[in-house]
């Protein structure tokens, strides 16, 4: 069955270049009306111009699609609210939000300035929070919404020099976990995309031959599936070079030790068993994980 976005309205942040541009072009090519948002700064978040985003809008329109440009910084909640209002005034709904805008301020943690830490968290995490918050009541009222957060393997697994970026990206997985639970009753599905692609963000980080295999277009199918009517909910899809995987935050079977004065020593001795991955699960929520632990204690005490 083909994936079609006719009648749907999408906002893609950071869509002036790189992955966001490909997301916007692909959504529009499949019928969505697209808000092409981009602040237009450099990869470190310095400067700003709406010309790159306007060029994407022009490309969509030249191909017969519908698009409007927006130059809001996702860090500015009032500007984000105005962008969402502009979307409502133009098309009357918001079905899809792709939180894609991002910057880098890489340095080893020892050398990292706290201002660079805060800015990266502000753009990635608070940017996605602002956009999600602004569209949330609209999606609730529509009883329909699809939100894609852009996380990263740097957050899921760590990368040297990216403490700020990794923390912000993993926070987006946490945001997704709760929004996907809260949105369910209104048919709002929230998922994460963990892309790998050759863009200005990865320039110089990987050898030329590797970058060649990583065309941004190869990531887009994962976004399209998560933006579609039949989207999954609460999924982290990794995508790069045409390969797709799902990342889970799992829980081992563990062991119940109870509380005695020597619990720390018994835990240290049992660490291999606690970390053993055989039979690990993915709890349905944080509360479900807590309930699991209480259940083990009750079994241990014959309750
Ligand atoms: P990019 O630098 O080409 O795209 C990011 C876009 O976001 C730029 O066009 C930039 O102007 C825009 N932007 C930055 N700050 C903004 C703000 N405050 N408000 C609005 N727009 C803003 O880089 P790329 O690679 O296309 O990145 C897209 C997303 O994918 C980012 O969230 C990035 O962290 C993520 N990502 C990329 C990976 C890759 O391999 N390229 C790996 C993992 C995640």
Automatic annotation (TrEMBL):
It comes from the Bacteria. Keywords: Oxidoreductase. Residues 8-204 form the Ketoreductase domain. InterPro entries: KR_dom, NAD(P)-bd_dom_sf, Peroxisomal_Beta-Oxidation, Sc_DH/Rdtase_CS, SDR_fam. Pfam families: adh_short (PF00106). Belongs to the short-chain dehydrogenases/reductases (SDR) family. This is SDR family NAD(P)-dependent oxidoreductase. It comes from Limnohabitans lacus.
């Amino acid at each position: 069955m083909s994936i079609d976005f006719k009648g749907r309205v999408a906002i893609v942040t950071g869509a002036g270049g790189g992955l966001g541009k490909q997301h916007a072009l692909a959504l529009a090519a499949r019928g969505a009306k697209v808000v092409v948002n981009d602040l237009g700064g450099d990869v470190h978040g310095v400067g700003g111009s709406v010309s790159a985003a306007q060029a994407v809008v022009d490309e969509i329109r030249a191909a017969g699609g519908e698009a409007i440009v927006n130059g809001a910084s996702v860090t500015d909640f009032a500007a984000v609210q105005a962008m969402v209002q502009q979307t409502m005034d133009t098309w009357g709904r918001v079905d899809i939000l792709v939180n894609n805008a991002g910057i880098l301020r890489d340095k080893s943690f020892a050398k990292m300035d706290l201002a660079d830490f805060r800015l990266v968290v502000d753009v990635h995490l608070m940017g996605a929070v602002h956009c999600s918050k602004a569209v949330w009541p609209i999606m609730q009222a529509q009883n329909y919404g699809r939100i894609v957060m852009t996380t990263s393997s740097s957050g899921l697994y760590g990368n040297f020099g990216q403490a700020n970026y990794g923390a912000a990206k993993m926070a987006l997985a946490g945001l997704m976990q709760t929004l996907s639970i809260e949105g369910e009753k209104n048919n709002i599905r929230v998922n994460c995309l963990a892309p790998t692609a050759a863009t200005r963000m990865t320039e110089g980080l990987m050898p030329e031959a590797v970058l060649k295999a990583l065309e941004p277009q190869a990531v887009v199918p994962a976004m399209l599936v998560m933006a579609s009517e039949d989207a999954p909910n609460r999924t982290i899809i990794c995508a790069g070079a045409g390969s797709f995987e799902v990342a889970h935050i799992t829980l081992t079977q563990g062991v119940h030790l109870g509380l005695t004065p020597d619990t720390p020593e018994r835990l240290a001795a049992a660490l291999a068993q606690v970390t053993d991955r055989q039979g690990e699960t993915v709890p349905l929520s944080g509360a479900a994980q807590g309930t699991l632990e209480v259940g083990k204690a009750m079994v241990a005490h014959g309750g």
